[in-house]
Amino acid sequence: TLPTIAWIGLGIMGSPMSENLLKAGYSVTGFTLEQEKLDRLAKAGGTAAGSIAEAVRDADVVITMVPASPQVEAIAYGPDGILENVKEGALLIDMSSITPQTSIDLAKNAREKGIRVLDAPVSGGEAGAIEAVLSIMVGGEQADFDAALPILQALGKTIVLCGPHGSGQTVKAANQLIVAVNIQACAEAVVFLEKSGVDLKAALDVLNGGLAGSTVLTRKKDNFLNRDFAPGFRIDLHHKDMGIVTDAARNVGAALPVGAVVAQLVASLRAQGDGGLDHSALLRAVERLSGA
Ligand code: NAD
């Protein structure tokens, strides 16, 4: 029989991901802060719980997908949290993008209670979540990875154990660095092309066929063309991730000269009230700098 799953955090990513587990035949009990997301889970065949304790009580596997380290700590620890209420021997898979150190600490604290942990952040965005083709970067122990693999295969396509606890988060931090710099480069090209009077759609199509092509350019092309900045992936979250990669790189003495500049541009968008927009809104930052 399939393991019973509790899912905490039914946002842009968590809702479609948990629905893919339902489609694969798992029973899923969920908890999140928005009632409409709980209703959506119930409509898809899952069970809506009234609290974290209620959601995790009978679970063999608990999956968390919340914004950042403080939320992971809030749902994991304390009398109403996961660690106090889950069965001994359960597996906790945190798929949120958080600091590597938070994942390392969580694994250690959980182990003292007989609970196994994997960090398993993802890349591929909302579309990747819906289509179950996410890249999943995992940190933790081989045996726990092996146990989690069938579940992760219902959510993603490229699933790799990267090393011990925290390694998945380190790889995810690198992912966010590459994505931000890539979006920034595309945004600069878009403003340059438009100011030059070239047909933007034609330009992006041909660029995508050459070495300049990328998943970012494919996925974000329509955002650029239509100035559609509905999230997707919010600037607020990418700001969090640029902080994670900047800190982690400083800790190991790795220089991020370009990443640091892009981190500043992400921060400036947020300071100007654009934190709720999709990260393709880096185009706005370049337009402002260009007087467009
Ligand atoms: P979101 O804001 O849409 O969803 C977060 C969910 O967490 C919300 O439903 C909220 O109710 C829930 N939550 C927060 N605090 C909670 C608590 N104390 N108890 C229960 N539920 C709580 O965010 P998202 O876009 O789904 O992102 C989630 C994580 O995945 C983030 O770490 C993000 O960086 C990462 N991520 C997002 C994308 C993307 O494209 N959106 C892609 C890859 C990774």
TrEMBL record:
InterPro entries: 6-PGluconate_DH-like_C_sf, 6PGD_dom2, 6PGDH_NADP-bd, HIBADH-like_NADP-bd, HIBADH-related, NAD(P)-bd_dom_sf, Tartro_sem_red
GO MF: 2-hydroxy-3-oxopropionate reductase activity
UniProt-recorded name of the protein: 2-hydroxy-3-oxopropionate reductase
Pfam families found in the cross-reference section: NAD_binding_11, NAD_binding_2
Family to which this protein belongs: Belongs to the HIBADH-related family.
Gene3D superfamilies assigned: N-(1-d-carboxylethyl)-l-norvaline Dehydrogenase, domain 2, NAD(P)-binding Rossmann-like Domain
Stretches assigned to the 3-hydroxyisobutyrate dehydrogenase-like NAD-binding domain: 166-285
Keyword terms of this UniProt record: NAD, Oxidoreductase
Stretches assigned to the 6-phosphogluconate dehydrogenase NADP-binding domain: 4-163
Organism placement in taxonomy: Bacteria, Bacillati, Actinomycetota, Actinomycetes, Kitasatosporales
EC number, UniProt record: 1.1.1.60
Entries under SUPFAM superfamilies matching the protein: 6-phosphogluconate dehydrogenase C-terminal domain-like, NAD(P)-binding Rossmann-fold domains
